[in-house]
Fold this sequence. Notes:
The complex is a heterodimer.
Chain A (H helix, E strand, L loop, with lengths): L10 E16 L2 E13 L2 E5 L6 H8 L7 E6 L2 E2 L5 H8 L2 E4 L11 H12 L5 H14 L15 H13 L5 E5 L7 H18 L2 E6 L2 H7 L2 E6 L2 E6 L1 H5 L4 H10 L3
Helix pairs in contact in A: 4-5, 5-6, 6-7
Chain B lengths: L9 H34 L7 H11 L4 H25 L6 H39 L2 H7 L4 H40 L3 H11 L2 H27 L4 H36 L1
Helix pairs in contact in B: 2-6, 3-4, 3-6, 4-6, 4-7, 4-8, 4-9, 6-8, 8-9
Amino acid sequence: MEAKRINPNIDRSEKVITIRGLKKAFDDFEVLRGVDLDLYKGENLVVLGRSGTGKSVLIKIISGLLQADEGTVNVLGKEVSGLKPREMDALRLKIGFSFQNSALYDSMTVRENLEFPLERHAKHMTVAEREDTIQYVLEAVGLLQAINQMPSELSGGQRKRIGIARTLILKPDIMLYDEPTAGLDPITCIEINSLINEVQEKFNTSSIIITHDLTCARAVGDRIVMLLDGQFQREGTFDEVFESNDERVQSFYNYNFID
Amino acid sequence: MDLNKNKPEAAPARRRYVTTRRLDRIFVELAKVYRFNARFFKEVWFPPYEFREIIKQCYEIGVRSLPLISLTGFIIGIVFTNQSRPSLADFGATSLLPALISVAIIRAIGPLVTALIAAGRVGSAIGAELGSMRVTEQIDAMEVSATNPFKFLVVTRVLASTLMIPALTMFTTLVSLLGGYLNVHQNELTSLSVFFYQVFDAITFLDIIASSVKSVIFGFTIGMVGCYKGYNSSKGTEGVGKAANSSVVTAMFLIFIEELLIMQVINTIRAF
């Protein structure tokens, strides 16, 4: 198992995301039942939970892809539900969203995927500056050689890395990772975990990592919250979260670690 | 457990419930279509205009459709002329073939055939492309990177389709007329200049305007239906297939309805 890192960059005096009483239901199924959450500057927060418990819904509400039914979501001092489309776009430039299946634009090369946000939101950049930025983020994720490849030519791990590079290109303050290690082999999972930590250190981002992979949670999480029955039932470091007699928590642990 | 389920009086109530649910769904769908169209007309006027994507889509829809459209148009011109000849020959009126071909192809066959082929080729491609972008979260990825996916994906494709289908219709009409000419020339030894003199003599300015307006409407319909079905697709890969399929079926159905309505309007205008 990967060793737990110690993150010196957390600033507990500054909250970048504050969520209070968040509720969300789909038809009659209530996914989130009053969620409270704080994310501090420079922190890697892992949200653990079984599939279908609303983990992804949570970060989709934070990024404005879904609307909350009740509650408040404050991101970088702005109340998400009250924002006009233009204000929402301005806020989204400060949020990077890494999708579960990478969501690379498959009709574009890696270079075009990275150029796409720059062309729209960094119009002041010269062609040379754009090229430098693209090369910089590709180097940061260790895939400079893939610059002219199509997404279909990349492996799952490489696609994840390019997806992260695309979100980093606009230098976001907050990173939201949706199942970053899902569907990857153990070695690639370790590489992605290291990349998440490197991104935090190099770009000084605050991150929410959605996962059900405990190896990932242990390797990248400064703090871990566990979503059970639509609410955060456990919170703390990895060891604190799993020091519990709750059968649901223990079964989750045992299922992940046979050792 | 519903104890009334098996009672005879429960059956009409259940039928009423099912009918109401179906009607609900139809009205909800109509409202969604209205909102989708309204959003297009709202967003088309404001920047960013995404010219590069519009040109790319014009190429995809227009230039890439040329070989199929040309071949089909040419064959239709020949077949239509060949099939029309015996009827005119019965009255000794084969000299009217160019006029007949002209009226049929320019007024109806040209725009209709082009639209139906484009609905199959372009409509399904747009539906499948946007559908797969929806289910693989590429549309969400655009949205979270503060890019308006509706403007980049829908507005560009609908505009390109609305611009390119009239151009393709003109081309198909010309190629069909050439096919017709070859057949007439082979059988009646009519020269090219005489053929086209008769072709243009038989039609009016209203025919050309009506044909152009019709093809613009067909183009808009094909683009809009493909985008609507693809943009709102769901349920994974199955949804992509359904989006592509229903793009074609719905567009073709609407094209026939529009053809019927436009024909009535043009005939009314012609009567004045």
